């Protein structure tokens, strides 16, 4: 158990629908990152939050949005779903979001597998 | 534009032998490189990292080598064990102020044959 909790583990929905994925970071971690892994693709960075504020955006579609709440859990909202949105969505957390010496090691959850039919 | 590339989708190695996984990058601003291991139905787990000012970092059976001039790094696993069978991701991060998200390669699936 990495300490990062993601729900739901699996989700099947139809095109055009909206879903919400939830992530609870490891205790004490202030940064939350969302990544998407599609078939045969690496982990694509979507968005990062640090202590409730958006810190960086990657290849996140306009149909997707996220937020981090005061208790530091985060939600990723995916709307107007398309077949191509089927993927594994990972949440990761780290203790910090800015420059400190050493590698910024991200701890990942087990992922949420989204299937859009 | 893939900034971190793992050109071998898969690798098979006999138990007890050395496994060498390779990674190339294009962005000279990367200051840390990390390797993650991923088993099916689990999230990636951190394995080992190296700073861009070093050329080698070792942790037990795992050693990462960095050739900055060639923008290339490799992960050596010696000796390889069946439990090492997993997908290995190379990742990199940029220094300076701002976010510290990791940029990942597509992964290499390692199979260690007993």
Polypeptide structure, described:
- Chain A is mostly beta strands.
- Chain A has strands at residues 5-7, 10-13, 19-24, 31-37, 44-50, 53-57, 64-68, 74-78, 87-94, 107-108, 112-116.
- The termini of chain A are far apart.
- Chain B is built from no helices and eleven strands.
- In chain B, strands 2, 4, 5, 9, 10 and 11 form a six-stranded mixed beta sheet that branches. In chain B, strands 1-3-8-7-6 form a five-stranded antiparallel beta sheet, with no helix packed on it.
- Chain B is globular.
- Chain B starts with a strand and ends with a strand.
- Chains A and B meet through strand 4, strand 5, strand 9 and strand 10 of A and strand 4, strand 5, strand 9 and strand 10 of B.
What is the strand tally of chain B? 11
Structural class of chain A: mainly beta
H/E element order of chain A: EEEEEEEEEEE
Count, helices of chain A: 0
Number of strands of chain A: 11
Contiguous runs where pLDDT drops below 50 for at least 5 residues of chain B: none
Which stretches of chain A of 5+ consecutive residues score pLDDT under 50? none
So what's the overall shape of chain B? globular
The run of helices and strands of chain B is EEEEEEEEEEE
**Helical proportion of chain B, percent range:** under 10%
Multimeric organization? heterodimer
End-to-end separation of chain A in angstroms reads 31 Å
- Overall average pLDDT of chain B: 93
Beta-strand residue fraction of chain A = over 45%
Figure out the total of helices of chain B. 0
Radius of gyration of chain B (Å): 14 Å
Please estimate the helix content of chain A. under 10%
Secondary structural class of chain B: mainly beta
Brief characterization of the structure:
The complex is a heterodimer of chains A (117) and B (114). Chain A is mainly beta.
Question: Which features characterize this protein?
Answer:
heterodimer; A: 117 residues; mainly beta; B: 114 residues; 0% helix; globular
SSE layout and pairing:
The complex is a heterodimer of chains A (117) and B (114).
Chain A: E1 5-7, E2 10-13, E3 19-24, E4 31-37, E5 44-50, E6 53-57, E7 64-68, E8 74-78, E9 87-94, E10 107-108, E11 112-116
Parallel strand pairs in A: 2-11
Antiparallel strand pairs in A: 1-3, 3-8, 4-5, 4-9, 5-6, 7-8, 9-10, 9-11
Chain B: E1 4-5, E2 10-14, E3 19-25, E4 30-38, E5 45-51, E6 56-59, E7 62-67, E8 72-77, E9 86-94, E10 103-104, E11 108-113
